[in-house]
UniProtKB/TrEMBL annotation:
It comes from Rhodocytophaga rosea. It is a multi-pass membrane protein. One of its GO terms (molecular function) is hexuronate transmembrane transporter activity. Residues 13-424 form the Major facilitator superfamily (MFS) profile domain. The keyword Transmembrane applies. This is MFS transporter. PROSITE patterns: MFS. The chain crosses the membrane at residues 52-71, 78-97, 103-122, 134-156, 168-187, 231-251, 271-292, 304-322, 328-350, 362-385, 397-419. One of its GO terms (cellular component) is membrane.
Length: 428
C-alpha cells in the first residue's frame, strides 16, 4: 500500500511537535544570550546568574514529573496547551521584572511549563505513529532542540539591537501563542479526528495496540517505578542528559580556552557542532525505523541503534589529542550528533514497552531523573575545571570530562541491555 494511499496527516502532527520543541529551546536560551546586557542592567554577579539557572533546572525537573502524570490524566491536546501557555507567559514576563529575585521567580515558572514539552510530544507520537515510524517521528521533532539552539543566537541579538532586551523576551515568548492556535485547530487523538482517513487510522494502529482513549486512567507512579521498563528510560536519561547539557553550556568556553576562539564574534565552529545534532536526531530515528521495516524485532532494532550510537561517542575521548580546532570540531560534532540519535531512540523505547496511557508518566519520571543529573553534573564540571585552572592546566580538566562523556553512553547501554534481556511490553 503506497504512502499516498495511506495518507500523511500524522506527519503534519509531527511538524507541530517539531515547531513546539524549537520554540521551547529558543525561549530557554534567551536569558543566556542576554546575559551580558542583563548583568549591566541589574548588577548581577556570576553567583546571581548561577542561582537563576539552578532555579530553572530544579523547576524543570519538578515540572517533568508533574506534567508527565498530568498529561496522562487529561490528554495530550489539553496538556500540551497548558504547558505552552505557562511557559510562554513566563517567557514574556521576563520583560516585566525589576529584580534578580523576579528573574529567578519567572525562570522557575518557565522551567515548570517547559517540562511539559517532551512528555506531551512523546505521547503524541505514540498516539499517531506505528512502532516502525516512531523513532523517525521522534527524531524529527527532537531535532527542534538543535534548530532552536541555532536559531536563538541569530534571532535574539537582532531583536536586542533593533528594539531592546525587554522586547527580546516579549517577541520570542509570544511565538508560543501563535503555535497554540494551529495546535488547537489541527490536533486531536486519531480516534476523534475528523480529517483522518480510515486507511491511515488502520495504518497507525497496525501494531494492534489499544487505541488511545480520552477516558484512560493514568497508572500510579509507585506502580511504574516497580517495573523494569520504567528503569530502562531512567537509566537512559540520567547517564546521558548531563552530557548534552555539558555540550550546550561548556563547549564555547572549551574552544575559547583551548583554541583561543573569539566568542564575541559569530562562531562557525559552534554552528557546525549544533547543526550536526540535527542530522543525528533525524538519522538516529531513521536507522531504527529502517531496521524495523526490514523485519527486525522492535526492541532489537532500538538496542542495536543505541549500541551504534554509544560506539560513535567513544572517539570524543581522543579530543585531547586534537591540535587543530577543526579536528576537535569534527570529533565533538559526531559525539553531539550521536547524543541526539540516542535521545530519539530512548524516547521511542518508552512507547515501545509501556501502554500509551502511561507513556507521558514514564517520560516524566525519567525526564526528572535526567534533569536532576543535569543539575548536579555542573557541580562536578565546575569544581574540576576550577581545580585544574588553578593548577594552570585547565585542558586536563576537559580531558577528564571528555572521558566521562565517552563512557557514559556505553555504560548506559550495558545496563539497558541487561534490563531488557527478556523484556516484553507491559500489559496492564
Amino acid at each position: 500500500m503506497g504512502e499516498t494511499k495511506i495518507g500523511n496527516y500524522r506527519w503534519a502532527v509531527c511538524a507541530l511537535l517539531f515547531f513546539a520543541t524549537t520554540i521551547n529551546y529558543i525561549d530557554r536560551q534567551v536569558i543566556g544570550l542576554l546575559k551580558p546586557t542583563l548583568e549591566k542592567e541589574f548588577s548581577w554577579s556570576e553567583t546571581d546568574y548561577g542561582n537563576i539557572v539552578m532555579v530553572f533546572a530544579a523547576c524543570y525537573a519538578l515540572g517533568y514529573i508533574l506534567f508527565g502524570n498530568f498529561i496522562d490524566k487529561i490528554g495530550t491536546k489539553l496538556g500540551y496547551s497548558i504547558s505552552i501557555i505557562i511557559w510562554s507567559i513566563a517567557a514574556m514576563a521576563h520583560a516585566l521584572v525589576k529584580s534578580t529575585f523576579g528573574f529567578g521567580l519567572v525562570r522557575g515558572v518557565l522551567g515548570l511549563g517547559e517540562a511539559g514539552n517532551f512528555p506531551a510530544a512523546v505521547k503524541a507520537v505514540a498516539e499517531w505513529f506505528p512502532k516502525k515510524e516512531r523513532a523517525l517521528a521522534t527524531g524529527i521533532f527532537n531535532s527542534g532542540t538543535s534548530i532552536g539552539a541555532v536559531a536563538a543566537p541569530i534571532l535574539v541579538p537582532w531583536i536586542l539591537g533593533a528594539y531592546g532586551w525587554q522586547e527580546a523576551f516579549l517577541i520570542t515568548g509570544a511565538i508560543g501563542f501563535i503555535w497554540l492556535i494551529f495546535w488547537w485547530i489541527y490536533y486531536e487523538i486519531p480516534s476523534r479526528h475528523k480529517k483522518l482517513s480510515s486507511r491511515e487510522y488502520e495504518y497507525i494502529h497496525s501494531d494492534h495496540e489499544p487505541a488511545a482513549s480520552p477516558n484512560a486512567v493514568a497508572i500510579s507512579w509507585s506502580r511504574l517505578l516497580s517495573l523494569r521498563q520504567t528503569w530502562v528510560f531512567i537509566v537512559g536519561k540520567v547517564l546521558t542528559d548531563p552530557i548534552w547539557w555539558f555540550f550546550l553550556f561548556w563547549l564555547p568556553s572549551y574552544f575559547a580556552t583551548t583554541f583561543k576562539l573569539d566568542l564575541t564574534k559569530p562562531s562557525l565552529h559552534l554552528a557546525v557542532v549544533y547543526t550536526a545534532t540535527t542530522f543525528g536526531s533525524i538519522g538516529g530515528g531513521y536507522i531504527s525505523s529502517f531496521l524495523i521495516k526490514r523485519g527486525w524485532p522492535v526492541l532489537k532494532a532500538r538496542k542495536a541503534t543505541l549500541l551504534g550510537v554509544a560506539i560513535a561517542v567513544l572517539p570524543i575521548i581522543l579530543a585531547r589529542y586534537a591540535s587543530n580546532i577543526w579536528v576537535a570540531v569534527g570529533i565533538i560534532s559526531i559525539a553531539a550528533a550521536a547524543h541526539q540519535a540516542w535521545s530519539a531512540n530512548i524516547f521511542t523505547v518508552v512507547s515501545d514497552i509501556v501502554p500509551k496511557r502511561a507513556v507521558s508518566s514514564v517520560v516524566g519520571i525519567g525526564g526528572m531523573a535526567g534533569s536532576i543529573g543535569s543539575t548536579l553534573f555542573p557541580l562536578l564540571v565546575g569544581s574540576l575545571l576550577d581545580y585544574y585552572k588553578a593548577a594552570g592546566n585547565i585542558g586536563a580538566g576537559y580531558n577528564i570530562l571528555f572521558i566521562i562523556c565517552g563512557l557514559a553512553y556505553f555504560t548506559a547501554w550495558l545496563i539497558i541491555h541487561f534490563l531488557t534481556s527478556r523484556m516484553k511490553p507491559i500489559e496492564l
